[in-house]
Amino acid sequence: MAERLCCYDLARSEAILTAQHNLAQYQVCVDTKFVEPFQAQVGSFYLVLGEAEHREETASPVVKARILTCVEGVNVPLLEQAIQEQRKYFNERQEQKENSIS
């Protein structure tokens, strides 16, 4: 899911992305060390790929970004649909592999 960049702290290499689903608003903390420098555009939509890890000082997970891409102007619902289709394809392929082994 694409999320909006809420704030970016270059000194801490940390960005906060926000997403709203129904009435709930969610925040994701992103470690940006591996993708710097990048042109932070607060308020724009971003897509992040990376590993989630738990930090002892915070109760919530942090995503260590490997890819952080601005997707402003992209048809986000269509992008999300494409991601769902890809996941469905990979799941079906995995099931076929498991069935052929047994």
From TrEMBL:
One of its GO terms (molecular function) is telomeric DNA binding. One of its GO terms (biological process) is negative regulation of telomere maintenance via telomerase. It holds the Pfam family Ten1_2. It comes from the Eukaryota. One of its GO terms (cellular component) is CST complex. InterPro entries: NA-bd_OB-fold (IPR012340), Ten1_animal_plant (IPR029146). Signal peptide: none annotated. PANTHER family: CST COMPLEX SUBUNIT TEN1. This is CST complex subunit TEN1. It comes from Hirundo rustica rustica.
